[in-house]
Amino acid sequence: MSGTLVLVRHGQSEWNLKNLFTGWRDPDLTDKGREEAELGANALKDTGMTFDVAYVSVLTRAQHTLDIILDITGQKGVETIRDQALNERDYGDLSGLNKDDARQRWGEEQVHEWRRSYDVPPPGGESLKDTGARVWPYYMTEILPRVLRGETVLVSAHGNSLRALVMILDRMSPDDVTGLNLATGVPMVYKLKADSTVESKEVLGDMSSAH
């Protein structure tokens, strides 16, 4: 019995727009971000998919993306579980800083390493590996068992918490994942086999070529 796992990165946030490091800070979606969530929601609606449970981080931008999806697909009553295990990576001392200002302060190369390396954390923050260290156990103990029971599970989260998940689903190496960017608001639909490996992956309405 194959279950379905749907991953959606939240739409553009106010701080994405301002080019700020966000992390665990809690800005809301922009108008564009709401539109991105609506596009993703309509793509999901077109599949006729019904969800058994939704998981979401404790941050507003992911929750509002989820609200839009459940509203447009007519599934507002679905069981919803919030957990900070799905939060965006914590950028520590970089949180709230403009990315260009950070480059001027620490240098282009250092900021690039903090942003894109696998295991080098920014000061006081988390690396992608650290983010995975809280996302992966939560996925294995809470989310995966429900998918393996044949349920359709929706996860609304963040660029880095979802990159950590995509890394294990797509069997990417630490080197591979450093180049992975996930489009905002675009659902990734995984069908899993009984052994938890991926049977198929479909990206719905992938707008990346249009960005």
Describe the 3D structure.
The chain has a single domain (4-88, 128-210), classed as Rossmann fold (3-Layer(aba) Sandwich), CATH 3.40.50.1240. It is built from eight helices and six strands. The protein has helices at 14-17, 31-47, 60-72, 99-106, 108-116, 128-148, 159-169, 174-177, and strands at residues 4-9, 53-56, 79-82, 152-157, 188-192, 198-203. The protein has a six-stranded mixed sheet with strand order 3-2-4-1-5-6. Helix 3 (60-72) links the parallel strand 2 and strand 3 (79-82). The longest helix has 21 residues, at 128-148. The radius of gyration is 17 Å and the shape is globular. 40% of the residues are buried. The mean pLDDT is 94.
Mean pLDDT: 94
| Biggest sheet overview | 6 strands, mixed
* Poorly predicted segments: none
Output the radius of gyration.
17 Å
Q: What strand order characterises the main sheet?
A: 3-2-4-1-5-6
The CATH class is Alpha Beta
Q: Any idea what the shape is? A: globular
Distance between the termini: 37 Å
The total count of strands amounts to 6
The domain tally reads 1
The portion of residues assigned to helices is 40-55%
Structural class: alpha/beta
